[in-house]
Amino acid sequence: MKIISFSIEDVPAGDKDLILCLGFYDGLHLGHQKLIKAALKEGGPVGVMTFDVAPAVLLGKKENFSLTSTFDKADILEDMGVKYLYLMHFDVQTLKVTKDEFIQRVLKPLNPKKIYVGEDYKFGLLAEGDARYLKQFFDVVVIPLEKIDYAKISSKKIREFVENGEMEKAQSYLGRPYRICGLVIEGERKGKKLGFPTANLELEYPYVFPKEGVYIGYAHSLRRKKKALISVGTHPTINQLLKPIIEVHIIDFNENIYGKVLSVDFVSYIRPIIQFPEIEDLRKQIAKDEEVAKNTLK
């Protein structure tokens, strides 16, 4: 898949017979996947156009907002068979672009043969553009919203699930576990002294932060998938922190991965963060948590 980054000042020409999917696609959930799979059935080259920054993050409405980074999206889209990822730079000036400017300055140069959008798609200043308006200029296919138990699948709802620690519900909407990717950095090595070494994650993207607590899931490193315990919290029993961090104990794994990228899948919330009276109590609880992970995860 080819990733094409551009701004409204230098929009590239589109591929011949381009089938273009429009949207922000945060999370690339089952509804998004349904739309893209429908576009892929056209048989022509499929491109997905999105922004490099979430509008809510740009406007400072929310610090941790995104379900997927640009790289996460690229990996998923490539696996789906998408040929192009059009990554448009989003800034304060882009916010002021009207629906007609977006059509004339962005979509017309791309010159898609057909456009796919969801039925709730909006574009342009004050979200004045919609699928009906788009149909005046292009051949547009509108994909109905995907629902589970009569509820619309949406990125907003998935963010709520993650923030509430409801990872099974998040997975049912995403079609896969919620994943966070980060760089492994050196910590205080308290876990290693307890007999349960942890990888501390430094996040370089504003992922939605899960509810504080202990989770079971999977860690992906060095092209291997391993069962893991994931702690989201301030570790109050040992040198309590001011802000929560993500620490990952990879089960039956003892390799040095400092400076490596670690991807972590959150499968289930198993308990809250507890301040134990003694360090030994904490060690015993982690041993129990590890057994839960070993016995529950496949």
Order of helices and strands: EEHEHHEHHEEEHEEEHHEHEEEEEH
List low-pLDDT spans: none
CATH topology of the largest domain: Rossmann fold
Strand % is 25-35%
Task: Record the strand order, biggest sheet.
Answer: 1-4-3-2-5-8
- CATH top level of the largest domain is Alpha Beta
- Summarize the biggest pleated sheet: 6 strands, parallel
Task: Give the helix tally.
Answer: 10
- Structural class assignment: alpha/beta
Span of the ends, CA to CA:
31 Å
General description of the model:
There is one protein chain. The protein has 298 residues and is α/β, with parallel strands linked by helices. The protein has two domains: 2-152, Rossmann fold, CATH 3.40.50.620; 177-296, Riboflavin kinase-like (Elongation Factor Tu (Ef-tu), domain 3). 29% of the residues lie in helices and 29% in strands. It has ten helices and 16 strands. The protein has helices at 30-40, 55-58, 70-80, 92-95, 99-110, 131-134, 155-163, 167-174, 190-194, 279-296, and strands spanning 2-6, 19-22, 46-51, 84-88, 114-118, 122-123, 129-130, 140-143, 147-148, 151-152, 178-185, 199-202, 213-221, 224-233, 245-250, 261-271. It has a six-stranded parallel beta sheet with strand order 1-4-3-2-5-8. The protein is elongated and about 70 Å long. The model has no long low-confidence stretch (mean pLDDT 93).
Summarize this structure briefly.
By secondary structure, the chain is of the alpha/beta class. 29% of the residues lie in helices and 29% in strands. The protein has two domains: 2-152, HUPs (Rossmann fold), CATH 3.40.50.620; 177-296, Beta Barrel (Elongation Factor Tu (Ef-tu), domain 3).
